[in-house]
Amino acid sequence: MICLSNINKYYHQGKNAYHVLKNIDLVVRAGEFVAIMGQSGSGKSTLINIIGFLDDHFDGDYTFEKKNIAQMSRQDCAHYRNRNVGFVFQNFKLMNNLTVKENIAIPLLYAGQSFSQTEVKIEQALNQVGLHGYQNQYPLNLSGGQQQRVSIARALINKPKFLIADEPTGALDSQTSKEIISLFTQLNLKSSMTIIMVTHDLAVAQKSQRIIRIMDGTIASDQETGYESRLINTNGT
Ligand SMILES: Nc1ncnc2c1ncn2[C@@H]1O[C@H](COP(=O)(O)OP(=O)(O)OP(=O)(O)O)[C@@H](O)[C@H]1O
Ligand SMILES: [Mg+2]
Fold it and tell me: What is the distance between the alpha carbons of residues 98 and 103, in angstroms, rounded to a whole number?
């Protein structure tokens, strides 16, 4: 589904060019749950921003479902992003002056749907993340874990082809982190959602199917974690 071939990325600061991603080759198949690890500054966010169509300033080829992203216009890219990818961030990025329902509706409104068309979808998304009945709450009245669930519901609402999560448990305590990762595992196993997640936490990464380690802008290793053990963990055994 996602195919990066010889990706190089530079940040230009004045006369200097900083080489942040170096010759990245990466294939992510539909239905995979991938964790990306690496030291701060190694290029993880830069990489997933490219994968999530947020950044089209790079050298090399990115093909998504056989379509070449580098050749798309800015507008097509934005449209593609809205239809294909859901984002989850460390700090949730919810609008605190809007209700849970309104926050989740934002991507639907961008996609051109009226508010009345969105009610059922919002209810389904909230059920999917275990927040039935929270429609009219405000984010600041919810716990960190609940806020992250709202942001996951918002990411899922347009039925994206894949989810990108940048440190989704970075602001959460260890018990809440476990609950959020277990939600990702469920989405991956039951709804076949493709997930690409950056994390600093090895315990979190080990709940994925595959761990990619980035070092100084290159892929240092790419290993399966063992799918069978993941299934057993999900059953709580
Ligand atoms: N917009 C930018 N302009 C210039 N340099 C940047 C920009 N964004 C990131 N960088 C630099 O590129 C490098 C990689 O940044 P990136 O955010 O991808 O790292 P990261 O692996 O996600 O780190 P962290 O774990 O701290 O989030 C860093 O050295 C950073 O300072
Ligand atoms: Mg980062």
Answer: 6
Taking CA atoms only, the protein residue closest to ligand 1 atom 18 is 43
Higher-pLDDT residue of 115 and 166 is 166
Going by CA atoms, what residue is nearest to atom 10 of ligand 1? Answer: 11
What is the residue whose two structure tokens read 């989740």? 104
Please write the tens of the pLDDT for every residue from 151-196: 999 999 988 999 999 999 999 999 999 999 999 999 999 999 999 9
Tens digits of residue pLDDT in 4-40: 999 999 999 888 899 999 999 999 999 999 999 999 9
> Given the DSSP bridges, would you call strands 210-215 and 218-224 parallel, antiparallel or unpaired?
antiparallel
Angstrom distance (rounded) from CA 124 to CA 132: 9
Structure tokens of 73? 């216009």
State CA 85 to chain mean position distance: 8
Which residues, listed in sequence order, are joined to residue 26 by a DSSP beta bridge? 4
C-alpha 51 – ligand 2 centre gap (Å): 14
Residues with CB under 6 A from ligand 1: 11, 13, 18, 20, 38, 40-46
Pick the CATH number of 31-42+81-234 from 1.10.3720.10, 3.40.50.300, 3.30.70.330, 3.20.20.30: 3.40.50.300
